Amino acid sequence: MSDSRLKIGITQGDTNGVGWEVILRTFADQRMTEIFTPVIYGSHKAAKAYMALLGGEDYTVQFNIISSAAEARAAKVNLIDTGDVDPKPGVASAEGGRAAVEALERAVADLKDGAIDAMVTAPIDKESAQSETFRFTGHTEFMAAHLEGEPMMIMCSERLRVGLVTIHIPVAEVSRSLTKEKIVASLTTLRQTLKEDFGVVEPRIAVLSLNPHAGEGGLLGEEEQAIIKPAIEEAFADGVLAFGPFPSDGLFGGGGYAKYDAVLAMYHDQGLIPFKTLSPEGVNFTAGLSAVRTSPDHGTAYDIAGKGVADAQSMRNAIYAAIDIVRCREQWAEWTENPLQHFERDKGRDVSVKDLKLPEQTEE
């Protein structure tokens, strides 16, 4: 794109949750548009309803209404109106779920077409969003169905990064869902995203156990000895600096997580409970896909929706993270396109691999 500022798409989420509240609070600060060009996908009617409900300059935003991302103007809060909605703060409803999905589908289409550089999603209610055309257990699964790659849910903050082997499945299914191959693949993806998306030269990854006390040598479960430890060993042999398995309580409670660039958890709550405790303003990043999607690390928060108390910092952090990850990917692509050529150019030469010749062999 010609404008050096990135275009970041932002979806409204469930119109009855805190999505619009944190979006309005974020863009009431006009300095945000100095960093990037926002393109919000959502109901203009719902936005005006929340501005009237919440009142005050902290929730007042002047929107530039556009019909496509191509029309987005720098230094403006651009809005693509995805349809009229009458919000009912704090109430789970089919209308709120439908509005969330409509905004999401419009934004993903633009993301796939390159009309926006990344996407930040406000929270949806998974149950309200279900319909004949939307059968996904979350944003991560929806993004995986529309973009290239194998998704990994990563929670990230300046303090901690946590990747998940399994995501939105019942706890009763976690054990039988774990395989050595899946854990090795997760470690490989986590290592790659830490390098490409976060700029870590060679990341160190702590792997959590599934059972208490890492299974106590099989006394409390066989998964550590039969699946997790062999996966760590295989990944390590392939160049992944993976260590463990560690009991979750000990690693987080004792502060050992700080010695690693990321932690790989076996299931959703094992990773998210300590993450949200240590990083309440963190970010959810869908790694491993061909495009960047982030979101705040909180849900719809129906209990406080429309009350003017929702903290917008996680939304702001999700936007900052999306920008940083896009820029980091660009730099990684440049650095790795032809490392030898870059090295030689720094020395005053401009060569390509095809210009190199192997030394002639001599007969003994």
Structure characterization notes:
Helix content is 38%, strand content 17%. It has 364 residues and is an alpha/beta fold. Strands 3-4-2-1-5-12-11-6-7-10-8-9 form a twelve-stranded mixed β-sheet, sandwiched between helices. Helix 7 (180-196) crosses helix 8 (223-237). The longest helix is centred in the C-terminal third of the chain and has 25 residues, at 313-337. The protein is globular, with a radius of gyration of 23 Å. The N and C termini lie far apart (58 Å). Residues 351-359 have low confidence and may be disordered.
Secondary-structure blueprint of this entry?
Elements lengths: L6 E5 L7 H9 L9 E6 L1 H11 L8 E4 L10 E5 L12 H20 L4 E4 L4 H4 L9 H8 L2 E8 L4 E4 L9 H4 L2 H17 L7 E5 L14 H15 L3 E6 L1 H6 L8 E4 L2 H11 L4 E7 L2 E5 L16 H25 L1 H8 L18
Parallel strand pairs: 1-2, 1-5, 2-4, 3-4, 5-12, 7-10, 8-9, 8-10
Antiparallel strand pairs: 6-7, 6-11, 11-12
Helix pairs in contact: 7-8
Strand content: 15-25%
What count of helical segments does DSSP give? 12
The strand count comes to 12
Structural class: alpha/beta
**Helical fraction:** 25-40%
Overall radius of gyration: 23 Å
Biggest β-sheet description:
12 strands, mixed
Q: N- to C-terminal separation?
A: 58 Å
Average pLDDT taken over every residue? 91
Shape type: globular
Strand arrangement, major sheet:
3-4-2-1-5-12-11-6-7-10-8-9
In short:
With 364 residues, the protein is an alpha/beta fold.
